[in-house]
Amino acid sequence: MTREADPTQRPGEGRFTRLLRPFAGSLSRRLLVLTILFVMLAEVLIFVPSVANFRLTWIEQRLAAAQIASLALEARPDNMVTPALREELLENAQVYAVALIRDDATRLVLSDDMPPQVDASFDLRDAMAMTLIMDAFDTLFMGEGRVVRVTGEPRFGAGESIEIVFDETPLCSAMIRYGKNIFFLSLIISVITAGLVYFVLHFVLVRPMRRLTENMVAFRKNPEDARGLIAPSSRDDEIGVAERELALMQREIRATLSQKARLASLGTAVSKISHDLRNILASAQLISDRIGAVNDPTVQHLAPRLFGSIDRAIDLCAKSLKFGVADEPLPERRLIALRPLAEEVIEAVSREEDGIDWIVGIGQDMHVDADPDQLFRLLLNLARNASQALTEGEGTPPGRREVRLAARRARGHVHIDISDKGPGLPQKARDHLFEPFSGGTRSDGTGLGLAIAAELARAHGGHVELVSTGPGGTTFRICIPDAAAILQECSEAAE
Predict the structure, then answer these.
(1) Does pTM surpass 0.70?
(2) Each residue's pLDDT tens digit, 94-116
(3) Strands laid side by side in the 161-167 sheet
(4) Element holding 268 (H helix, E strand)
(5) Yes or no: is domain 330-494 CATH 3.30.565.10?
(6) Which of 234, 250, 360, 458 lies 20 to 30 Å from 486 when distance is taken between CA atoms?
């Protein structure tokens, strides 16, 4: 006969886990149960010394009653009482026998005719707390019907010690009643305390946390909905910090998503423009071929550069159509002379911005291992930014409109510096220097120039960095490593 499986049991779930399942879905329920358990635990820790103290007090009361009963003998000249009075005194003291020790001599004061056999003995003189606790539990578990002898100190200096023999059953019953009273009292205190703590923490902690989680879930489902943004409260504790940080994170995520959407739209628009522009440039290329056939020295001098510019534009449009504007192809590196490429960049920028002095501090023997087309675009973006900083910067005198290009080689790397004497970059541009649509300095700028330059440098294994900026001008540095230097750095990193 096979036993049917419980449909409510989850795979790998034990019995204890099933018992705790009703409390696993809510922080409020967990808080309530844990508060009750912790208060009960605290009451248990209090109960242990309390029951030991209750036993000690009960026995001390029996010792005091027995000592009072012995005073009846002290009042008689012969220290003798009638059997009926003796039985009454022992019954009132609830003991079987009383012995008082004076001057190191034991004198039996009161006793039954046939006292019962003693089962256990306890000495309360100089008893330690742990000893009293262990004796209390011994009474709870062994006290039914047991006769014990207890030794203690008599009151008011009536002797050195006093011993009583009594039945422990009433003491055990009284301790059990005391324990029950403590248990029910502890339960009531636990429920009241748990309720108060629960309601306080529910309004102070649980409700704000629930608000945070519900807002995060709603924001995850539709991050573009502005109604899903949390409104931070004025709290200055950890919950308030969490609300403000969540609000800031949500705004940044929405801004990022908005920027991604703009980039996607821009990519679609650029693809359409690139398609039409490629057709236009193809017609321009046919015209440039005819111009190249003109037998004129000036035309023959300018024609190669014109052809190169048109070829680069056509190639860029074709690559944009292949995989959008965000994907740069791998550079086709070769060793090229840097100075002619820099002069071509300066000539291209000079046609856009006039009145700028260009100083080229690059030797004829300086070569760089790079893709010529990508390096041309990289230099063009930085040179155009430098010229725009001079022509559009407020307060820049004409005598200071100067851009310097310099290069040097160090440890298999070529460092190209582009410096201008403009007013410097504002703080907003420095904070988002190489981020598209964020690092522009002009109101109508996009900030794409530096972003594209940084991406092209990274494709070569190098980088673009801001060396300095301020009222005296701005300097950007391009670092392009040789292919051999990249291989050596990779091998050293692997070792």
Answers:
(1) no
(2) 888 888 777 666 666 777 767 78
(3) 105-111, 97-102, 161-167, 147-152, 120-123
(4) helix 238-292
(5) yes
(6) 360
